[in-house]
Design brief:
Helices cover about 25% and strands about 35% of the residues. By secondary structure, it is α+β, with helices and mostly antiparallel strands.
């Protein structure tokens, strides 16, 4: 058998890479952040610091949410939060997750432009609510299977100090998020133009602009939530630990 020349191999890899980028470019969303709901914020901060993460301090919000952040170079982040007193609908939306146990809650997906997303959702007959805030625009969902996901568009850039991006592990940020869901969860990502890279009856994997989302089919009627995250890591010795109820690979 005639072997492939090095030049032909390079050209083939280039073409495959271009095709992959074209597919992901059609997707209108990228990974943004996921909140981890905990009982004791200080204890959670210490646990993540012990793993080598740098914590960016947050503050006590008027609605009773107390938070802090783990920021990454690729503009993704992890939000650590606890509830001191749920004073509005946003704070109350985290209580069912905490009652079910510490861990992941919502998945936040970043969008660059609102209008194309609204058109895609309307075409797919997916019901949503559009919220226009001071610094952000949100798209939220009420239907089970979707209500643990929200879309966010930033009205301005939020620059991060370099010291908050220098974590002990070699990572640029979130690369993969796993969450529970149903058929409507998969239909959302299909409507947003995200390509399917793996599909089984109980597992559906989508490629976003900057990473992947794994949807694991869960029984109807339960509280769907984020169950795991993976960080981009150039090292071969990837570790996986359950930290405050969330599976984290880094």
């Amino acid at each position: 058998m005639k072997s492939t020349s090095p030049i032909a191999t390079i050209v083939l890899l280039f073409i495959l890479n271009c095709l992959s980028n074209c597919v992901s470019a059609q997707c209108l969303v990228s990974l943004d952040h996921t909140p981890i709901i905990v009982n004791d914020l200080k204890a959670a901060e210490q646990r993540f610091q012990d793993l080598g993460f740098v914590i960016k301090p947050g503050y006590l919000h008027e609605n009773g949410i107390l938070n802090s952040h783990i920021k990454f170079q690729n503009h993704t982040s992890i939000e650590l939060m606890s509830i001191t007193e749920a004073k509005d609908a946003i704070a109350r939306s985290y209580l069912p997750f905490l009652e079910a146990g510490e861990g992941g809650s919502f998945l936040s997906l970043r969008i660059d432009s609102i209008q194309p997303v609204l058109e895609r959702l309307e075409t797919a007959n997916i019901e949503f609510e559009f919220l226009d805030g001071k610094s952000f625009q949100y798209i939220v969902f009420d239907e089970p299977g979707l209500n643990h996901i929200f879309l966010i568009a930033y009205k301005r850039d939020f620059l991060q100090q370099k010291k908050y991006l220098q974590h002990a592990m070699n990572t640029s940020g979130l690369d993969e998020v796993s969450l529970e869901g149903s058929k409507i969860t998969s239909r959302l990502f299909e409507a947003l133009g995200c390509s399917t890279v793996h599909r089984e009856e109980i597992h559906h994997r989508f490629q976003l602009q900057n990473g992947f989302v794994n949807i694991h089919k869960a029984p109807t009627g339960r509280l769907y939530r984020v169950v795991g995250i993976a960080l981009e890591n150039a090292a071969r010795d990837r570790k996986t630990e359950v930290v405050h109820g969330l599976s984290i690979s880094y």
